[in-house]
Design goal:
The chain is of the alpha/beta class. The chain is about 35% helix and about 20% strand. It has 13 helices and 16 strands. Strands 6-7-9-8-12-16-13-14 form an eight-stranded mixed sheet, with helices on both faces. It has a five-stranded parallel sheet with strand order 1-5-4-2-3, with helices on one face. Helix 3 links the parallel strand 4 and strand 5. Helix 2 crosses helix 3, helix 8 crosses helix 13 and helix 11 crosses helix 13. The longest helix is centred in the N-terminal third of the chain and has 22 residues. The two termini are about 40 Å apart.
Length: about 475
């Protein structure tokens, strides 16, 4: 598997445009060049030699943006063509901290090239030095750089082909990452999960003859003197055939990205590490492939989950909630301050929101409005859905404690959330993020690629808000 080769960027703040800039992108009401020309008009009608730009200079008029998302979207579009192949020094100019922040976010997202296996790939950007001209704080620059690396890691993993990122290779790769970053690392392998009685997870895992599935626990300790921890849980289905409920009509293509939730967890942990955030954070990765074979699970079976709940299987393509069930139990048994889980889980969430928003659910009523606000201020927008107990009527089983999903037409994103709620230990605040915006054609907000890495920026904003005293 490829290494995550993230570029090293030298990002500096300056009072004026450096003369050695290879490319300059202005995002203002009025261009600096116009101002310079006006100042020189009474002298010789030309720019002074030390003021004339040596490279490409692009001016984009600043449009009114009513939200962070709109500002990030405008910055992404402004970034198109802002530099040429061979340019090494990019300067970004803006009148406001908000605009300059958006430009930096868009530039860092665009400068990271997703992995390619082409014999003759397009030339990669060579920009490694970024100068910011305008009102922005050093602390904000540091946050955006760390966040961009976490987002890039998420997109990198979500792009890897299914024969390169398997449950085996993914686990090994995470172990190497954990060692490099100083994270704790623990594997619950197939045999140990059998001994523990993790029947929901293993129902999906048993379709792979190699028994390569595992639950991986990684831990970042940003406050080692504290016993408090925060838990992030990620769905890591490295490939989803649908199992016996086989995906058809081309819907199987792209299912190498069904591990996007686990990638968000790793991207968020990497961001926290780069910033040295004062939290203890535990990541739980449910790594598996949903294969079709003689041992694969199928409809009308009953399996027993780690917490003792019996589940009547309805649809083998609803595998994500099965592997998350036991993983949420493991995570919540450690009594974290809260649990977030991330999963590319349901088509009905995409049907409800499109791929512009992601859906959120929580068992902590006080968090409904803060979640919306966090999405708005991060630019990764989320919208809450109900999770009331009466929705359990839709997944009631005659022979088990619960059905995996509704056998007919139903609000499956809500049913899935109600299902997952059964596996979170009592008293543990929990948020489920259904990653409808994991992939969006043409990019989303500041990210220019179809694979968006949605979730890292949202999580960082939530951590910042939560540390400021959120309930």
């Amino acid at each position: 598997m490829k290494a995550f080769d993230y570029p090293v960027f030298d990002v500096q703040i300056a009072a004026s445009v450096p003369t050695d800039s290879d490319a300059v992108l202005e995002w203002r009401e009025r261009s600096v060049l116009t101002v310079i020309a006006d100042r020189n008009r009474e002298r010789d009608q030309t720019l002074a030699p030390d003021e004339a730009p040596k490279g490409q200079w692009t001016f984009v008029k600043l449009a009114t943006a009513s939200s962070v998302f709109e500002r990030l979207t405008q910055a992404r579009k402004a970034m198109s063509g802002a530099w040429q192949v061979g340019d090494q020094h990019l300067t970004l100019v803006a009148d406001s901290a908000e605009a300059l922040d958006a430009l930096l976010s868009a530039a860092l997202a665009a400068l990271y090239v997703l992995p390619t296996f082409k014999q003759d790939p397009a030339p990669a950007p060579t920009v490694r030095r970024i100068t910011l001209v305008g009102p922005i704080a050093d602390a904000d620059v540091r946050i955006r750089c760390a966040e961009a690396e976490g987002n890039a890691l998420t997109r990198f993993l979500s792009t890897m082909p299914a024969n390169k990122l398997t449950p085996w290779s993914y686990r090994d790769w995470v172990e190497d990452l954990a060692e490099a970053e100083g994270w704790g690392f623990r594997v619950y392998d197939y045999k140990e999960l059998q001994q523990m009685g993790a029947g929901a997870f293993l129902a999906v895992a048993q379709g792979s003859e190699s028994q390569d599935a595992s639950i991986v626990r990684v831990q970042y300790r940003g406050k080692p003197e504290s016993t408090d921890t925060l838990a992030l849980v990620g769905k890591g289905v490295c490939f989803d055939t649908g199992g016996y409920n086989l995906k058809i009509s081309g819907s199987m293509f792209g299912m190498h990205g069904d591990m996007g939730g686990s990638a968000v967890v790793l991207g968020s942990l990497l961001t926290a590490t780069r910033l040295g955030l004062p939290f203890n954070m535990t990541g739980w990765l449910a790594l598996v492939a949903n294969h079709l074979g003689p041992n694969a699970y199928h409809a009308n079976q009953v399996v027993r989950a780690l917490n003792g709940t019996t589940i009547e299987v309805v649809d083998t393509d609803a595998e994500g909630r099965m592997i998350l069930a036991d993983t949420l139990t493991l995570a919540s048994r450690e009594r974290p301050k809260w649990v977030f889980d991330y999963a590319t889980l349901t088509g009905t969430c995409i049907a409800a929101l499109s791929t512009r928003y992601s859906g959120v659910f929580t068992n902590h009523d006080a968090w409904w409005m803060p979640l919306i606000s966090t999405g708005q201020r991060s630019g990764e927008r989320v919208w809450p859905f109900p999770i009331d107990p009466d929705y359990d009527d839709q997944i009631k089983s005659d022979i088990a404690d619960i059905q995996q999903c509704n056998p007919g037409k139903s609000s499956d994103h809500i049913d899935a959330a109600r299902f997952l709620s059964r596996f979170v230990e009592a008293g543990v605040p929990w948020v489920h993020v259904d990653l409808a915006a994991d992939s969006h054609k043409g990019g989303l907000a500041h990210v220019p690629t179809d694979v968006t890495g949605f979730g890292v920026r949202l999580t960082l904003q939530w951590l910042q808000d939560w540390s400021s005293g959120a309930d």
